[in-house]
Amino acid sequence: MSSSSKRQLPNVNLESTEKIRHLNTALINTENNLRHAQQNFELLKQIQQPASTSLLDTFRNNGTTNDGVLTSNDSHFDHESVATSSRRASSSSHQRSSSSKGVRFNDDVHGRSLQNLNQDIQSLSTEHGRLKHELSKATSSKHQREAPHIHDSDDEEVNDSFLARNDPLVEEIVQSRLDRRLQEIEREIKRDKDQQQQGDVRALVNELQLQRKLTTPTLNEEDKIFQARLLLAESNKQMYESQLLSTKRQLEESELNKTLLAQQVTQLKDQLMKSEFDRDKYPRDDELLLATDRRRRTEPDRQHDFLLQQQMMFSKSATLNELVTFKKELEKSERQREQLSDHLEILVKKCDEKDKLVAKTLLELKEITDNCDTFERQNTKLQRDLTLALEKLEEMTQEAERYAQESVDCQKQLADSEQKRDEFKIQAQETVKQWKAKVKKLEKDVDRHKFGSTQVLERNEQLVKDMETTKTQNISLREQVAKLEFDLNEAQATQNRLEEHFKRNENDANQFRILRSSHETEISTFKSTINELEHQLSTYRQRHSQLEKEKQHSQQLLQDELNHRSNLESKLKQAEQDIEAMNTSRSQFQQHIIELENERMDFLQKIKEVEFERDSLSIQYHSISKTLNDEKTKFQTKLASIESDYDELKRKLDTSKMEYTRGMKSFQVEYENKIETLKLQLSDEKARIGIYQRHESENKKDLERLQEKAMKYEDEATQAQITKLTVEAANEKNQNIRKEKDYQHSLHTVYNDITYCTECLSTDSDEPFIIDSPSGIRDDVETWLTKVKARLAWLKQELEIRQQHENKLRHDLNNALLDGEADRKYFAAELAKREVIIDDLAREKHNQKDFEREASDRMRVLQSQLSRVEGHSLKELERAKQLQNNDLQIEYDKRRALTEDEKDRINDRYRQ
Question: What is the C-alpha to C-alpha distance for residues 134 and 128, in angstroms, rounded to an integer?
């Protein structure tokens, strides 16, 4: 600036002077604004409290108005905007006063930013003064050079306007510096605005969280504890933090133990507290109503109370009163805890007494259940014996049916064997007839051949005459040979068929032998089973009589059990009346009786569970009493520590009277936070007590409802068991009657099968069974057994007769088969001989043809000789020819004729 002041400054026009004038006015306004900001900052530094946010807001609003002044080049300060912004800031400060933690931290941040801004403003003011001094220096030197006759004026505005009118360089420098500095100020103000917005957002978030925590006190305990921890960490009070943590832990443990105790006591022993709860019903209901009224307070009322508390906090007497009230509330809570512990001890004693009564009743019920179990075991044993007897009876009836079916099958097989035997007999007769017819035919052929041999001589004489007839005879002989061949083939086929038939007969005979042996074994087994059946019938009669006696005995036992049950029910009713006399133990007795009646089979296990739960309850009671004593001691220590802290605070308040404006407010803030946390804890404890009382009333209602249901279920269960026992007895009786009927029916079917077998066999037997008048099985058992034995004896005799007859038939069949085999061999030999004869006849036929051909040749030779030789007569030629033919016929007859011995043997065989 010194170099610029030495330089010759040119003249400027009116526009530059106007700009400089406006610039000077702006600088004056900025000085005024900076002075006002400096005053505000000093006030902010003096007052360190939550209300400082309102001053900060006013300053920031002033900054925004100043920014507007700088940009619009407005000359006057907007007081109305400042007032409105201050009102707005005060309202926001009232809203943020509920969350003192966030406001304090934001105030610290804004305080640092304001210190920086103050430093910048001071530097700006010093620079502005220096610039102003240099400008005045430069203008004064120039004025002395150019116009020595003009004196310096006292008015700064005239000198500045005059100098500025002649110095454009100064105008540029000042304008650039001012623009640069104003930009820096704008950036600072924008940064402060952003920080203020962030702080407002954080304060709003804290307000919302606090409101949510206040509306839901059961869910915001951890947040409140966290807030208390932050406040304690801010105030560097580690001792209070550890104490609060320990109290929180103890409260949580006591709450858990109390909830466990409440659940278990309500499950097993809360019914004993009915009368006491009835006595304390009305005051507890009043407490519950008060608690619900406190919980149902609206949010505006809470905010109003909070504002009143904040206003009262600024006075020392209010804090002292709050501490005294807090101490009284702590003492009251300790007294309530002691009363609760005494009340719990009384309840535990009553529970022990009721446990003794329950144990006594449990022993009685145990004896009753043991008796019931013994009766049930006896009943099940009787039922098992009945089922075994009935199963054996069913097995015997099944065996009798099986034997009857086997006897029917044997009869069917015997009938089939007899039918086959008749068929074989008929077939054998037919074959014998066929063989006899064939033998007769062969005899006729033999007789015919005999007669032909006797007449050979006569025919030899006529052979020459009957040459033509011989041809016809040869043709007939050929036909007979073909017939004989056909007969031989048929005989061979019939022989093969007979062989196959004989083989089948042999197989059938073997099968008959096997069947016979099997029938004999079956008959023997059937006899043994009949004897066993007779023995078992006698045993079953005895067993049936025993079962009837046992049944009567079981019915008597059931009647005794029902009487005993009715006696037990009367005893239970008497016990209920006694329990009604004792108002405290009625519901528990009824509950245990219902449980024991419904769950008799699981009774021992439940007794063990109850004993285990009783031990656990006693252990829990001791642990709870210990925890309560520990809590009491800890609360006492805490109260002593709080009293000592109170004394320290009082001493500090006495010593810090001179520094009241600064120190007292900070102490008030700290102790307000502590009192708030402790009040919150007390309110939480009261809310927990109200919740416990509400749970107790709900448990009472549940117990009454369960008691009514238990009485209803007990009546239904007893009625259902009685009906079930009556139905089971009726079913067992019906089953016994049904099984007895089935047994009689099975015996009747066996008797009918035996009678049917005897009737079927008596129709074909030589000595039929004499059938008496039919009598039922239910009339007389001895007569029925005699009839069955008679029928079985007749069946045995008939089977032996049939077996003998079958053996005889088998012997005859074997003899017939042997004779047939011998005949077969004989006829085979005869057929072989006939085949030899047929072969010889074929050869002779061939020779005869040769002989005829030779004879024809000879005839031709003789005819030629007759023509040549005279003297030979025709008669001699014919005689020679006849002699030749006779010789041939004799040879042929010799070959064909049978010996007399063979003929006699064949005739003797077939005559037999």
Answer: 10
Distance between CA atoms of residues 648 and 35, nearest Å: 43
For residue 157, give the 3-state DSSP assignment.
helix
Contacts of 661 (CB under 8 A, 6+ apart): 46, 47
Amino acid present at 636 = Q
Q: Cα–Cα–Cα angle for 25, 30, 34, nearest 5°?
A: 150
Three-class DSSP category at 863: helix
Q: Which amino acid is at 802?
A: R
Distance CA 863, CA 857 (A): 10
Count of all residues that appear for the chain in the document: 912
- The domain spans of the chain are 2-215
**H helical segments located in 47-99:** 52-72, 79-96
Tens digit of each residue's pLDDT (9 = 90 or more) over 39-82: 766 666 665 444 444 444 444 444 444 444 344 444 343 444 43
User: How many Å from the N-terminal Cα to the C-terminal Cα in the chain?
Assistant: 185
| Residue of 902, 834, 910, 904 whose CA lies nearest to 492 | 834
402 burial class (0-12, 13-18, 19+ CB within 10 angstroms)? exposed
Reduced to 3 states, what is the DSSP secondary structure of residue 454?
A: helix
How many CB atoms within 10 Å of residue 583?
12
Separation between Cα atoms, residue 855 and residue 848, nearest integer Å: 10
**Degrees to nearest 5, angle at CA 255 with 250 and 259:** 150
| Three-class secondary structure of residue 569 per DSSP | helix
Say how many C-beta atoms besides its own lie within 10 A of residue 754's C-beta: 20
Give Cα 146 to chain centroid, integer Å. 114
pLDDT digits (tens, 9 = 90+) for 637-652: 776 776 676 677 667 6
pTM of the model: 0.21
**What is the 8-class DSSP label of residue 600?**
S
d(CA 522, CA 107): 120
The amino acid occupying position 404 is A
DSSP 8-state secondary structure symbol assigned to residue 270: G
